[in-house]
Design a protein that fits this description.
The protein is an all-alpha fold. Helix content is 64%, strand content 0%. The longest helix is centred in the C-terminal third of the chain and has 20 residues. The N and C termini lie far apart (29 Å). 15% of the residues are buried.
Length: 94
Amino acid sequence: MERQNFLHFINPNLYAIWDSRIFRYVTGKKSTYGIEKPKAYMEYIKVLNEITNHKDYRSLHFEIERNFKYEISPLRAIEILMFETDRERQRKRK
């Protein structure tokens, strides 16, 4: 397990998932070369936190969370959006 994902399981409210699908969404790269770089992960976390602090973020979070029967964290909402968007892009390419 990547160190970054280990952090996620310790504190998912502070550390987002950083897997190959999310990496591909963020970077546009098929290869996961670079996924293991802590600096890239920390930049990713910084950007996610900027997104969650944006004035319009709450409405986006609400739209994602209303599809679940439980509360989801701000970072989790963004992860879901990236994951599902990448999955849909990959489905369309096949």
